[in-house]
Design brief:
The protein is of the alpha/beta class. The protein is built from eleven helices and twelve strands. It folds into three domains: 50 residues, lambda repressor-like DNA-binding domains (434 Repressor (Amino-terminal Domain), Orthogonal Bundle); 132 residues, 3-Layer(aba) Sandwich (Rossmann fold), CATH 3.40.50; 131 residues, 3-Layer(aba) Sandwich (Rossmann fold), CATH 3.40.50.2300. The strands form two sheets. The protein has a six-stranded parallel β-sheet with strand order 2-1-3-4-5-11, with helices on both faces. A six-stranded mixed β-sheet has the order 7-6-8-9-10-12, with helices on both faces.
Length: 334
């Protein structure tokens, strides 16, 4: 007799539906059609699919491990975002005497969640199936840095749209009308939302959106350099640049100065993150602060309350970012 563990993929295949549909049926989401619900319930019964019991073990005090799943990308351990998330999760686990299981994922391989009572996903980047599978197995989940409105999952995020709007509105208040942007990866929700906020900010200030003032970056310093090179080649150059990360903003300041430009007299630059490196740049960086450490800490505390049976309602928090004024922005030509 086969001893293969039945997975959510097996259930979805037999029922002839997607993994998302199986997850929704198991989590009793009302939007599933009657036909699909019946097919999934038949498949669950036929395959004898059992949810993972690690959550129950944690509630009984038999499992004090929290899993942190982080999308893998080049330079992860040099990333301010990743370091702050790891630091915040680790600090909260230490305070609550929880064990931490850290997993870097490419998003495609199944997760071994049998040793964790609850899972924290640091964003959703090509790993949606992993979240759906974890939910279907009955393990409490928390997503950081992503507002999730189509899955029944807990999340804590920052208002990226509002943050970008604040950045553009501040530049406009200084008199800038030629405001460019180097976006983050538009494959990520944060990149999409910050670009959306950039466009909203322009609209609120009655500034025309100009396609040539947009460079699609990927949060890397390399893409920031390419973006500035594009802008400097324009006949009508921007006087200010909003970047979707501080790393990119700092690289733009460095390259601008290499080209003989003065920041902020010739070019104002504003970032997003509040990376401490911005304090020690040749020109201290004006930025939008997102509370990464607080997000990560709160994710652990709320997840611990859920798996321990002390919280029963969903966690859906969107934190407000903050404008931090320093030296890298000024009135055009000042």
């Amino acid at each position: 007799m086969s001893t293969k563990k039945i997975s959510i993929e097996d259930v979805a295949k037999r029922a002839g539906v997607s993994i998302t549909t199986v997850s929704r049926v198991i989590n009793n989401v009302s939007t599933v059609s009657k036909k699909n619900r019946i097919q999934v319930e038949e498949a669950v019964a036929h395959l004898n699919f059992k949810p993972n019991v690690s959550a129950q073990r944690l509630a009984k005090g038999l499992n004090t491990a929290v899993g942190l799943v982080m999308p893998g990308y080049p330079g992860i351990f040099h990333s301010f975002y990743a370091i702050e998330i790891i630091r915040g999760v680790g600090h909260a686990c230490e305070a609550l005497r929880l064990d931490l299981i850290f997993h870097i994922t490419n998003g495609y391989n199944p997760l071994n969640i049998s040793n964790a009572g609850g899972i924290i996903f640091a964003d959703i980047i090509e790993n949606r199936k992993q979240i759906e599978s974890t939910l279907a197995e009955g393990v409490p989940c928390m997503v950081i840095n992503n507002v999730v409105d189509d899955l029944k999952v807990n999340f804590i995020a920052v208002d990226n749209v509002k943050g970008a709007e604040m950045a553009v509105e501040y530049l406009a208040s200084l008199g800038h009308t030629k405001i460019a942007t180097v976006t983050g990866s538009l494959q990520t929700q944060s990149g999409q939302h910050r670009f959306e906020g950039y466009k909203n900010g322009l609209k609120k200030k009655n500034i025309s959106f100009r396609e040539e003032f947009v460079y699609e970056g990927d949060y890397s310093r390399r893409s920031a350099r390419s973006g500035l090179e594009k802008f400097l080649a324009l006949k009508d150059r921007p006087t200010a640049i909003f970047t979707a990360s501080d790393d990119m903003a700092l690289e733009i300041i460095n390259l601008a100065m290499e080209q003989g430009l003065k920041v902020p007299r010739d070019l104002s630059v504003i970032g997003f993150d509040d990376n401490p490196a911005g304090l020690y740049s040749s020109v201290s960086l004006t930025t939008i602060r997102q509370p990464l450490f607080k997000m990560a800490e709160e994710a652990v505390r709320q997840l611990n309350a859920i798996v321990g049976g002390r919280r029963h309602s969903a966690v859906q928090q969107v934190l407000v970012p903050e404008l931090v004024l320093r030296e890298s922005c000024a009135v055009p030509g000042a």
